[in-house]
C-alpha cells in the first residue's frame, strides 16, 4: 500500500534535479506537514462552453480572458474561473498527487476543483476556482490557494504522457505587486 509523503520526504525530493516543486516562493511557508501549498499566478474567466467526448480528439476547451491584477489584487464576483499556479510540478514515476483547497478558502465559501496529478506529470498546473460567496472574493497575487498532497505508488507505474504534459512551462514574468 502506498503512503502520503511527509514534509521531510517532500524536502528530500526538493533536492532532485528537477525538484518535486520548482519555483516555490517561500519553501518554509509552502511546505506543509502533508503537502505543498501552490500559489496564484493568474486568473482567467471562461468565455463560452467547452466540449468533451470519449476521445481526446473530441475535446474543445473554451476560450478564456485574463483578469488583470490591480495593485497586486484581483476582485472576483461569484462565478467560476481558471487559476494558474506559479509553481511547476515534477512528479517522479512513483509519486502522484491530489489537490485540496486551503481551509481558509472554504471558510470564505470558495473552493478549488482539481483533477489527479498523475505520476510522471510535469507542468504548471491549472485548477477551477469556484467563488460561491455572493459577496465575491478578493485575492492577492501569489495567494496560496491549494494544498497538493503527494502519494507514493507502491510498485510504481508508467509516466503520464497526455495532452497536459509540460503545460504552461513558459509564462511571462508577473508584474510586481504594488
What share of the residues does DSSP label as strand, in percent?
35-45%
N-to-C CA distance: 48 Å
Helix content: under 10%
Q: Summarize the helix and strand pattern as letters.
A: HEHEEEEEEEHEEEEE
Query: How many strands?
Result: 13
CATH uppermost class of the domain at 7-41 and 86-127 and 139-152: Mainly Beta
Coarse structural class? mainly beta
Q: Rg to the nearest angstrom?
A: 16 Å
From the coordinates shown, what is the CATH architecture of the domain at 7-41 and 86-127 and 139-152?
Answer: Distorted Sandwich
The number of helical elements comes to: 3
**Largest sheet, if any?**
8 strands, antiparallel
Report the average pLDDT across residues: 92
Instruction: Determine the CATH topology of the domain at 7-41 and 86-127 and 139-152.
Output: Deoxyuridine 5'-Triphosphate Nucleotidohydrolase, Chain A
**Uncertain stretches:** none
Which term fits the overall shape?
globular
Q: What do we call the CATH homologous superfamily of the domain at 7-41 and 86-127 and 139-152?
A: Deoxyuridine triphosphatase (dUTPase)
